[in-house]
Amino acid sequence: MTHGAPVWRDVEITAVRELLAQLRDVENGPGGWEDRRTGMDAFGAAAKLPDGLAVESVDIAGLEAELLTPAGAAPNRALLYLHGGGYCVGSPRSHRPLAARLASAIGCPALVPHYRLAPEHRFPAAVDDAVKAYRHLLGEGVEPGRIIIAGDSAGGGLTIATAIAIRDSGLPQPAGLFAISPWANLAQTGAAYAAVLHDPMLTREGLQDMADAYLQGEGPGHPLASPALADLHDLPPMLIHAGSQEILASDATLLAERAGLAGVEVRVEIWPEMIHVWHAFAEWLGAGRRAIEEAGVWARGKLA
């Protein structure tokens, strides 16, 4: 489905364009992966956090993570949030504002694992760490039907891949999956890769560099690398968001189509004029706030 047209304000457009320019410099700058990671963390540190948020470091048998607890959060529910960054950059710090806003909208704590990044750690290290974090929540006594898994960009694809790995390992599934602008087809075969000519954040070349760093010889069609190409039967309900102005829009629609054919309850929303992971700009962008609020309503319905 296509979401209703957002209302843009001049001040919002100006602020977001400036932020996009900064992020693009980070993503495509001359520095190595560590410089890009530092830059993305700085972006996250500059954004406001919800009032009353508690931030706690967690060690999951060697896997670092953050536990974000909004004011008034229900202790018997959990959001497992998987950050974006092309499997090569990003961290709980860089995505703390987005994860915290979503956790606040749902009304539950969020566990954000610092899963291992490429190229130091090749596929499927990120999937293994995400499943490890899910097992941790189960071990802490959180019922699977009280867990939502969500993520953005690579983390959106990782959200679906994690559910596939959970299914194949015989673990109980969470209540729902929320994929924001998911990078779910590393083969880059969707129509939007050619149709969207002016994505202000992503390029095919940049995505290919990150795919190569992550896969390191593994084929892009592997179901845990490109879950939009996978067998999706018996997965939990999905909510998928993507913007019409991003080259990953067709990843979202392909994922939704294949999920529906597999009998999965799925809802996909393509937001007109929106860019890649516009939710991350919620501090400045009204459409970002609305998208998070609506996702929170959906998630609460699945956790009820």
Description:
The chain has 304 residues and is an alpha/beta fold. It has one domain: Alpha/Beta hydrolase fold, catalytic domain (Rossmann fold), CATH 3.40.50. 40% of the residues lie in helices and 15% in strands. It is built from 9 helices and 8 strands. Strands 1-2-4-3-5-6-7-8 form an 8-stranded mixed sheet, with helices on both faces. Helix 5 links the parallel strand 5 and strand 6.
Topology:
Blueprint: H1 10-28, H2 33-46, E1 54-60, E2 63-69, E3 78-82, H3 96-106, E4 110-113, H4 125-139, E5 147-152, H5 154-169, E6 176-180, H6 192-195, H7 204-215, E7 238-243, H8 249-261, E8 266-271, H9 286-303
Parallel strand pairs: 3-4, 3-5, 5-6, 6-7, 7-8
Antiparallel strand pairs: 1-2, 2-4
Helix pairs in contact: 1-2, 3-9, 4-5
What is the N-to-C succession of helices and strands? HHEEEHEHEHEHHEHEH
Q: How far apart are the first and last residues' alpha carbons, in Å?
A: 24 Å
- Based on CA atoms alone, the radius of gyration comes out at 17 Å
The structural domain count equals 1
The secondary structure category is: alpha/beta
So what's the CATH class?
Alpha Beta
| Form type | globular
Tell me the number of helical segments per DSSP (H or I, 4 or more residues long): 9
Supply the CATH superfamily name: Alpha/Beta hydrolase fold, catalytic domain
The largest sheet, given as strand count, sense and whether it forms a barrel, is: 8 strands, mixed
The CATH topology, please? Rossmann fold
Q: If you average the pLDDT, what whole number results? A: 93
User: What percentage of residues falls in helices of 4 or more residues?
Assistant: 40-55%
Name given to the CATH architecture: 3-Layer(aba) Sandwich
GO molecular function: triacylglycerol lipase activity
Active site: 153
Pfam families: Abhydrolase_3 (PF07859)
Domain Alpha/beta hydrolase fold-3: 79-279
